[in-house]
Structures are given as C-alpha cells and as structure tokens.
C-alpha cells in the first residue's frame, strides 16, 4: 500500500490537498507552474505512480454526481432539506477538488445513473430522493454490480448492500411522540409522507413504538397521509378540522406539512386556544420563526451531505478498500427540539 | 434556416422537448427505443441534420456550468440569494435537457472558466459572485474573445460587452431611501457591501440620488461598510450604537446585515422604542419572519437565474444569433416591500 499521503505532497508543494488531487488526477484546469511543483513533490516523496494511475483510472471527469428529484416550480434549491444537504456535499467536494454535477430525475422519477458512469460524466454519485419503486431498486443493483461508487442519502433499502448515509428517523419519531405522551396527550394524529420513502416507514415505526410502550394501540382513524408539501398539510387540515373532538395532538412527518396543518386549522376557524399540540420534523428555519415556535426533530442534513460525499470520494482515493468490503451504513443521531407548539396546556374536555 | 422546430419533433415523437434535445445532441443517457422514435420523427419532419450537426458541435457535454463563490462553512446553498437563483437556473436547465455543473471558485475568488470550456466540461456558463478585481475582468474578456457563451448574473462591468442579467438595484435603493425620507427621517445611515460588487455601487448610486433629490448632501460619517454577512451587521451595530444621537434610520444593503444590525443594537442595550427605522434588501424569508417585519427590497432572484439560463442556452441552440450580435443586458425590476421596521413613529428628540 501507499505510505506517503496526499497531505504530505500538498505540504511540500505548498498547495491544498484539493490541488494535489486535481493535478495528479488530471482533472480541472490548473496553472502549469503549480502542476510542475506538485509533480516534483509527488516524485520526491515517492507518491507512487501506481496509486496515481489507479486513481486516474477511476477519476476521469472530476465530477461528483448528485441526483436530485424534480418538481416543477418547487424551488428545490430553496427547500431547507435540499439546500442543507447540498451545502454539506458542496463543502466536501470542493475540499477534495471535485465539481458537482447536478442531475435532475425525469418526471417519472427515473434517472439513468449507470449511463452517467458509463459516459464518464461522473466519477462517483450521491443519490437523493430515492424511494421504493419498481425501477429504482433494479437500477441501484445494477450500478452496484458494476462497482460504480455511489451512496444513497436519507433513504435505505432493506436487504441491500448499498452504501447509505441516513439519520435515525425511527428514534426521532419515537422521541417526538413520547414527548407528546409525556405532556399527557393521548389521541395523537399522525400525518405521514408517502410510504415509498424509508423516511416515512421509519417515522411510522417510531410512532408505533412510542404508543406500544405506553400500552396504547395504533388507531387507524388517527393516521393521515400527506406528501411532505405544505399544500398537503393544508389538505389534511380539512380532514382534521372535521374530527377535532377525536384528537388532542398531531405529529407531522415534516415541518412544511406541520405549518400547512396549522394554517389550515386556522382557516377552518379553530381558535388558538383550541389548537392541538403539534410536533413537526426537520427543524427547518421556519420551525423557529413561526409563531408559536414549532417543536420539531432536528436532522443534521448538512452533515448527511458532507459525510456521504466524504465516504464516496474516499472510495475513489482508496479503491482497494471498496473491493469486497462491507458497505457503509451510517445513521446520524437526531434531536427533538421542544418549542411552544407542543407545550401548551391540555385543552379542556 | 430551419423551419421545423424542436417542439414539433417532440410532439410527433410523444416526448418532451428536453428529450428531443438530448437525443439529437447525443448528450445524457436515453432509452434506445426513445432515441429511435425521436430520430424517426426528426427525419420525417425534415429537422435538418445540418442544424443538428451545428448544434452537436456546440453541445458536447450537455452541462450548463454554474460558477459559485465559496466560503467555508457558509452553507452557500442555504442562502436565500443562491438557493433562489439556482432554483431558477435548475428549472430552465432541466427543461432544456441540461445537467448543472457547479464549480466553486478558489479561495482567492479565481476560477478558470476558459479551462472548463476548453476541456469541454461545459457548453455554456453562468457566473455568480463576479466582482471588479484584477484577474476577473481579464478572464471574462478572454472567454468573450473565444466566443464561449456565458452570462453574468447580478453583476455588471462598465464598458464591457458581456451578457448580463441583473436587477435594477439603483432603482431599488432609491425607493428604499425615498421611503425613509417620506417617513420624515433625515439622518439615514447607509450600510453597504464591498465596493467591488456592482451591487454595492448601484446601491450607493440609489442612496445618493434619493438624498440629492431631497436637497440633502451625502454625509461621510453616515456611511458604513459590511460584507453582506450577518456577522458584519453585528460589527457595524457596535459602531452605530455609539452614535445613535446622529442617526434616525438605517438602509442596509441586504437583509442579513440588517438583521445583524438589529440584533447588535439590541445587544448594545438599545430599547425597542428607540430602535432606528431600518430597511433591508433582498426580501429573504427572514425579512418576513423576523419581528418586527423587516422592510426590504424584493429581488426576483429565481427569475434572474431562469432568464440567464434561458438566454445562454438559446445561444447554443441558435449560434447564428450569437455571432456579431450585441450582448443581452437585462435589468429586472425590483419592488420595495414596506413592513413594520420602517414605519414606526419618529423617535422623540
């Protein structure tokens, strides 16, 4: 194996590690003088041409692919979820000397990741917005078989050996619901996202566990379905407004739905003093800024992006580690942030 | 010229225009069956191979480059400014069948755009975060000379024939300051960003024009310098707190600085009833959510991104229009949004 490390070459040449990578991998534009200095340092330190060649063989484009879902007019980059993850990815990619190739899914959600690799448009790939659907699992298996380096972010597939960086949404949801139970709430409506996301099934598992531990059963008429959008929260609020006598609190699977629900209930004439307790999820900026503050589960989105980028780029630098090794399955911890929306007094019966 | 248009090919083949582009330009992965259908439709309609070849010669990577500034730990994608512009760019790029190649500037702000074109990593380029600096103008002139298609977003260079999509910040700043004057304020502190940005010089021009029209002089001791960050607003607030007897209102060149100033003045012990009137700029989400609401100038960032992408991609589709034509210089209108921060009563002398 290679004992001399990139950072030593960088220090001797007086450049950043990113610059060393760019020179040695022949990606990206670079000043000729800098290039010569890096090559001389690599040569003097015996940073082996072998390792360089192996690396070069894997790093052709200098691009880290990022597959994004796409919704027309959704201002995707402005969503807390994506902007934070991308900031984390971008930070790490830049440090490693990679550019980001952002690829949008087709309107049916599909994307030909294999083609991106085959056409050498990307060297590695981070996949956002994956879900349990006919084609998706097959696509991922295929690029896995071909040993193209990729990592799923915030989604996992049971029974597969994909690289996955996720947050512990089972635990986060469990904490959220247990918090409501501790406040004395008993009829907790659960507004979840689409079931095809592991995000949603994890949240449901956490909800069920908290109820179970409290000796309670899941009541099907307390389960509601949204799609993570604020609009879907508004829609669910119409249903909720019709059964306010049956519920005393709400756990919504993300903040946008929670805020939509609050708005919808107000529109339906529910007075502030009768507003059910509510906990959202994601701890977006809006959770803090809305009034009353929205209790929510903080997810380290930036760190998810940063870690996934670091892991997948390490596979490129040290391909020997990728061969035959077990995949990395990371679950970062989350944290319940309690604000006024879930701590008010119980409404009178 | 070519009479049959892409949309007709798309309709006959039963696919999107984006798919037609991808097939005819040989970029991006595509199902073989779809490819055949598009080629057959193009053939039947006489969508000329000539035009295709010309287009192909110019569109090699299928990537639209986006040059971004970079600040470590700044969570760039989470900033209202960048996330909105990128959402606009992404929306249009996807419709046209392009992926986005996000390229970060070096720590000294430089980026070798020419190299990106030369290495065919991008077909066209949108440039964010440009400013009046030694190397930048030269770099842009060079890619201009080589006829590589690019467009600056939210920055303009006097005396150059670069393509530029900007917003009318002179007018926006003029409106903001006139609004303060109309409220009876006379000692208006102006907290601007770095002078190397045309953004800053435009704001200053608007500030000066409003004062001039009111028969007032610019007082140098009312001018303060930040760098568009909230932290710089906090810093300026320390200076402002020391001269509250000299000022009755503040115009800050963006919302983040305005919010930093408000926080800083509170930290310095300024009571709510003595808080000077303040107007920010950008109309970010925070302006609406902060309390009291922050008056601000709304900038159509999404539309800036969308329009710049549309213009620069049109140069690729219709290169004959690019030759010898005058550059496009767009200034989109902005709008003052008045909230509570600037409408309270004048403080007593």
Please mark out the parts of chain A with pLDDT under 50 across 5 or more consecutive residues, or reply none: none
Oligomer: homodimer
Largest interface: A-B, 46 and 46 residues
Mean pLDDT of chain A: 88
The amount of beta strand of chain A, in percent, is 5-15%
What's the gist of this structure?
Chain A is α/β, with parallel strands linked by helices and 349 residues long. Chain A has helices at 6-13, 17-25, 32-45, 49-58, 80-95, 113-118, 134-145, 169-182, 198-213, 230-241, 255-267, 285-289, 301-317, 319-322, and strands at residues 63-68, 99-104, 124-127, 150-153, 164-167, 188-192, 223-225, 249-252, 277-279, 296-298, 329-332, 335-337.
Structural overview:
- With 349 residues, the first copy, chain A, is of the alpha/beta class.
- Helices cover 45% and strands 14% of the residues of chain A.
- Chain A has 3 domains: 6-58, lambda repressor-like DNA-binding domains (434 Repressor (Amino-terminal Domain)); 63-167 and 301-332, Response regulator (Rossmann fold); 169-299 and 336-342, Rossmann fold (3-Layer(aba) Sandwich).
- A 6-stranded parallel β-sheet of chain A has the order 2-1-3-4-5-11.
- In chain A, α1 packs across α3.
- Chain A is elongated.
- Chains A and B meet through α5, β2, α6 and α12 of A and α5, β2, α6 and α12 of B.
């Amino acid at each position: 194996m290679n004992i001399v490390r990139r950072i030593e070459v960088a220090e001797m040449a007086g450049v950043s590690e990113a610059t060393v990578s760019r020179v040695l991998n022949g990606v990206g534009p670079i000043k000729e003088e800098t290039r010569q200095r890096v090559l001389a340092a690599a040569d003097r330190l015996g940073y082996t041409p072998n390792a360089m060649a192996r690396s070069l063989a894997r790093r052709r484009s200098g691009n880290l692919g990022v597959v994004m879902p796409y919704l027309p007019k959704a201002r995707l980059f402005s969503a807390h979820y994506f902007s934070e993850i991308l900031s984390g990815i971008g930070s790490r990619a830049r440090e490693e000397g990679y550019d980001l190739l952002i690829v949008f899914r087709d309107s049916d959600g599909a994307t030909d990741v294999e083609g991106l690799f085959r056409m050498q448009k990307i060297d590695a790939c981070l996949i956002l917005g994956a879900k349990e659907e006919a084609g998706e699992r097959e696509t991922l298996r295929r690029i896995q078989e071909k040993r193209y380096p990729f990592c799923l972010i915030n989604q996992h597939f049971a029974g597969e050996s994909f690289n996955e960086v996720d947050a512990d949404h089972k635990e986060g949801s469990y904490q959220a619901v247990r918090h409501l139970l501790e406040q004395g709430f008993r009829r907790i409506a659960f507004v979840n996202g689409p079931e095809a996301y592991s995000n949603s099934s994890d949240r449901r598992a956490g909800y069920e566990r908290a109820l179970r531990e409290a000796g309670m059963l899941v009541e099907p008429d307390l389960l509601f379905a949204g799609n993570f959008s604020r609009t879907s929260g508004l829609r669910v609020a119409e249903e909720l407004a019709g059964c306010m006598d049956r519920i005393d609190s709400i756990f919504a699977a993300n903040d946008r739905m929670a805020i939509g629900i609050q708005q919808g209930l107000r529109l339906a004439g529910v007075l502030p003093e009768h507003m059910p307790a509510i906990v959202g999820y994601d701890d977006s900026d809006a959770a803090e800024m809305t009034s009353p503050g929205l209790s929510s589960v903080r997810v380290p989105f930036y760190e998810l992006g940063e870690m996934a980028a670091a892991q997948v780029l390490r596979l490129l630098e040290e391909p020997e580690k990728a061969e035959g090794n077990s995949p990395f399955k990371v679950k970062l911890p989350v944290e319940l942030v309690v604000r006024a929306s879930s701590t008010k007094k119980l409404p009178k019966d």
